[in-house]
Amino acid sequence: MTGTPLEKGTELPPLSVRLTREHLVRYAGAALDFNPIHWNERFAREVGLPDVIAHGMLTMALGGRLVTDWLGDPGRLIEYGVRFTRPVVVPDDGEGALVEFTGKVAELREDGLARVDITAKFDGRTVLGKAQAFVRPA
């Protein structure tokens, strides 16, 4: 984020991330979340999923990265929340799943905080609902 004044409607630089099965393994180790829906195709299909899916919290974290990269200081991210609306299916093909993040300043509050609305899409469909971050601009 530059030193220019922040305005409602300001768009954040987009972020595109390709998630692979390797990312899921690494995230599982860091988060200690070894649910088999994130690594076992047979199990994922048995519980009604199309294939292995990314951890929702990993997808959420990437949305947070969109904001903190823009801010330049993760300490200025005050609050962040999402609803998980659709899974990100990660095929075992070496290419993985492309998740695209965009954000826009939707509100400037009297208390000095700004609300950033985040959109996360996989395969053209939104995967995070009501994704909002409250930030303290520079």
Question: What's the quick description here?
Answer:
Helices cover 24% and strands 32% of the residues. It is of the alpha+beta class and 138 residues long. The chain is elongated, with a radius of gyration of 16 Å.
How many DSSP-defined strands?
6
CATH class of the domain at 55-135: Alpha Beta
Strand content: 25-35%
What gap, in angstroms, lies between the N and C termini? 8 Å
**Average pLDDT rating:** 96
Quaternary organization: single chain
Assign the CATH architecture of the domain at 55-135: Roll
Q: Give unreliable regions as ranges.
A: none
Set out the fold topology:
Layout: E1 15-19, H1 21-31, H2 41-46, H3 56-71, E2 77-84, E3 97-108, E4 114-122, E5 125-126, E6 128-135
Antiparallel strand pairs: 1-3, 2-6, 3-4, 4-5, 4-6
Task: Give a written overview of the molecule.
It comes from Amycolatopsis cihanbeyliensis. Residues 15-104 form the MaoC-like domain. Belongs to the enoyl-CoA hydratase/isomerase family. InterPro entries: HotDog_dom_sf, MaoC-like_dom. With 138 residues, the protein is of the alpha+beta class. It has helices at residues 21-31, 41-46, 56-71; strands at residues 15-19, 77-84, 97-108, 114-122, 125-126, 128-135. The protein has a domain at 55-135: Hotdog Thioesterase (Thiol Ester Dehydrase, Chain A). It contains 3 helices and 6 strands. Strands 1, 2, 3, 4, 5 and 6 form a 6-stranded antiparallel sheet that branches.
What brief labels describe this structure?
Thiol Ester Dehydrase, Chain A, 24% helix, alpha+beta, 3 helices, 138 residues, single chain, 6-stranded antiparallel sheet
